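@channel sequence for tomorrow's demo:
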Amino acid sequence: MDASKLEAGQMLKVVWRGQAVFVVRRVKAAVDQLGGHNGMLADPNSDDSIQPDYIKLSGAARARNPEYWVGLAVCTHLGCSPLGAFEPNNSFQVAGADLGANWPGGFYCPCHGSKYDLSGRVFKGQPAPTNLTVPPYAISATTRIDIGVNDAPKPA
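structure tokens (generated this afternoon):
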């Protein structure tokens, strides 16, 4: 898929192996603040997460390219589908829920209330036990993303 068409702050949902996958183009300010709320997260270093080894090495970004985050759109609690709730502010609401005064932006599962940051890392005290899963993927310099592979994407 060609992710270059996504504008900063936009999300695309695609299907891979019958599962929904989020592809998010994060704004620079959001990427810059990712490490600033680690104390609020259940697994900030993604030690207990399902993801390729190279994703763990990327730190708080959990991405091969920090501008683009790729992750399964499947809540790790009961398999519901979270919503994108990207705006960091003091009164952001999605699906009728107030996400809190310190909401840094991310994902929200309206079924049982689990909250994740913009790297799919779950906040402490949520029903979801682990961070959102990151599938294997490759991303080229031209932002072509191939989900399900660990090597360089094929030329367009």
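heads up for whoever presents: The radius of gyration is 14 Å.
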